[in-house]
Write a structure and sequence with these properties.
One of its GO terms (molecular function) is glycerate kinase activity. It comes from Candidatus Butyricicoccus avistercoris. It holds the Pfam family Gly_kinase. One of its GO terms (biological process) is organic acid phosphorylation. The longest helix has 22 residues. Helix content is 47%, strand content 10%. The chain has 191 residues and is mainly alpha-helical. It is built from nine helices and three strands; from the N terminus they run H-H-H-H-H-E-H-E-H-E-H-H. Helix 6 links the parallel strand 1 and strand 2. The chain is globular, with a radius of gyration of 19 Å. A three-stranded parallel β-sheet has the order 1-2-3.
Length: 191
């Protein structure tokens, strides 16, 4: 199971998307990407597995997706879809008025197979509003609206850095949730 759809290498591959989050600078990202490209070429040539780098999720976990396919004969499956099926999420949605979900940071990666994308896909087809309470809202978060997120709320109340926000996150989450539910209560009273 994997929670991303990234290819093994390239602009949307493992190195360019995830290595900067782990502290890699541009020079290191390029080296990592070249290494993943080389690994892909070796796998294709030696194991006769065509286009392994472009299989959805090949870039998951730094290239473990591709490794599982090549060396273990694995098949990649969406982690969130598997979990939602396991807990019979669709049944839980029956007679549901709205869904609240969360994520540490909502950004362009969130729409690439992460938890929020799986939940949004299922609530959208049922016209169930989906509200996301997140630690932070980053670049590309607006793509979540197309997936089915109705509204998103960041819990950061004072433009703190992550290090400053983390100890207060539970309190801020609670305050933000109260605000969201207060607005919903007002809306329902008017109906």
């Amino acid at each position: 199971m994997c929670d991303v759809k990234n290819p093994l290498y390239g602009e949307n591959g493992a190195a360019y998307v995830f290595a900067p989050q782990k502290g890699a600078d541009l020079q290191m990202v390029k080296r990592l990407d070249n290494g993943l490209r080389h690994a892909s070429e070796v796998i294709e040539r030696e194991l006769n597995i065509k286009d392994i780098a472009y299989i959805e999720g090949a870039g998951a976990a730094g290239g473990m997706g591709a490794g599982c396919i090549a060396f273990l004969g694995g098949k990649l499956k969406s982690g969130i879809e598997s979990v939602l099926d396991m807990i019979e999420f669709d049944k839980l949605l029956e007679n549901t008025d709205f869904v609240l979900t969360g994520e540490g940071r909502l950004d362009s990666q969130s729409v690439q197979g992460k938890v929020i994308s799986g939940i949004a896909k299922r609530t959208k087809i049922r016209n169930i509003p989906l509200i996301a309470l997140v630690g932070g809202i980053g670049d590309g978060a607006e793509q979540a609206y197309n997936l089915g997120v109705t509204a998103m709320f960041g819990i950061d109340r004072d433009a703190s850095s992550f290090e400053q926000l983390a100890p207060k996150s539970a309190l801020y989450y609670e305050k933000t949730l109260k605000d969201v539910l207060s607005v919903m209560k007002i809306t329902w009273l008017k109906q």
